[in-house]
Amino acid sequence: MVRLIALIISIILQIIAAVIALRFMKLTKYRLSWILLSLSFAFMAVLKIIQLFEFFRGTPSFTWQLINEWLGVLISVMIIGGVILIRELFYSLKRAETDRIRSEKRVINAIINTEENERKRFAKDLHDGLGPILSTVKMSLSALTDRIKDSSGSVILNNTNHLINEAISTIKDISNNLSPHILTNFGLTSAISAFTTKINQTKAVEIDFKSNMETLRLDNDKEVVVYRAVCELINNSILHSGASRIEIELNKHEKFVTLQFYDNGRGFDTSSLSKEDTKGMGLSNIETRVKTVEGVFILESTPGKGTSALIKLID
């Protein structure tokens, strides 16, 4: 009785397995490997049905035993063939995943390049469009200097000149921040050095920048990614960490380029970044950008012990 129950349960389970496997054949685009494995499940169910028939018959005949044995051989051959051929399915899935990753990188690169081109266009429009207009206004005001005799008019004129000078200077700063010409013309080290020098002049934070790359250049995409990452990290330290000192090292060792960043701010719990509602867009953008140039971005921080970051690229 126990054997009968086991046979019935086995037949039911194998029929279910065969039906499920056969229904998946369309998803696998009717690959031979999956067809063989599906048929092996079906023949295993047939084999169990034969065993159930022999159980009720009592005395197994030589013919049924022979069929039983050859079905077992056939099932074994189909399973071996299916297992060997199914490698093609896994390779196909791996190729599809690789193509998906490459496609995502192409899309992200296109977005980044479009963003940088728009930055350059906007910076050029500011510098070449609004800059000359303000310079012309300044020249016109200068022409009025000798014509204004009363002291109150001179004060107003001087204040206006001062404001125009501030506006011209601000436009230059905005244009340079949008698309720094130093990065394009002189490279990553010079651009970071100029940016950190400007921050140091504000006394908001002390930045110590060191590099062994000097005039060495990287691919334009990599220089842009690293420069934007440095700007974002410094901005985060000033706005959120309360740091008084930042240390940045940009070095090249053989074929690798590394940027190490550290601030002595209040730090934070990095596990909070995994929460969708609290993840900083800036840090997420850095990670995404670095991945597009085959780089690695590692961020470490502990409450009360500052924040450190590492960017590693292949030159």
Tell me about this structure:
Strands 1-2-3-5-4 form a five-stranded mixed beta sheet, covered by helices on one side. The termini are far apart. The radius of gyration is 35 Å and the shape is elongated. The model has no long low-confidence stretch (mean pLDDT 82). It is an alpha+beta fold and 315 residues long. It has eight helices and five strands. The protein has two domains: 2-106, no CATH class; 180-315, Heat Shock Protein 90 (2-Layer Sandwich), CATH 3.30.565.10. Strand 2 and strand 3 form a beta hairpin. Helix 2 runs antiparallel to helix 3 (62-144), helix 3 runs antiparallel to helix 4 (151-178) and helix 3 (62-144) crosses helix 8.
Question: Characteristics of this structure?
Answer:
315 residues; alpha+beta; Heat Shock Protein 90; five-stranded mixed β-sheet; 8 helices; 68% helix
What is the compact description of this entry?
This protein is α+β, with helices and mostly antiparallel strands. It contains 8 helices and 5 strands; from the N terminus they run ααααααβαββαββ.
Taken in chain order, the helices and strands follow as HHHHHHEHEEHEE
Helix content: 55-70%
The CATH class name of the largest domain reads Alpha Beta
User: What's the N-to-C terminus distance?
Assistant: 73 Å
What's the total number of strands? 5
Question: What's the CATH superfamily of the largest domain, by name?
Answer: Histidine kinase-like ATPase, C-terminal domain
CATH architecture of the largest domain: 2-Layer Sandwich
Question: C-alpha Rg, in Å?
Answer: 35 Å
Fraction in beta strands: 5-15%
The number of distinct structural domains comes to 2
What is the helix tally?
A: 8
Sheet with the most strands, sense and barrel status: 5 strands, mixed
**Mean pLDDT, nearest integer?**
82
Shape, principal axes of CA atoms: elongated
Low-pLDDT segments: none
Question: CATH fold name of the largest domain, please?
Answer: Heat Shock Protein 90
Structural class: alpha+beta
Major β-sheet strand ordering: 1-2-3-5-4
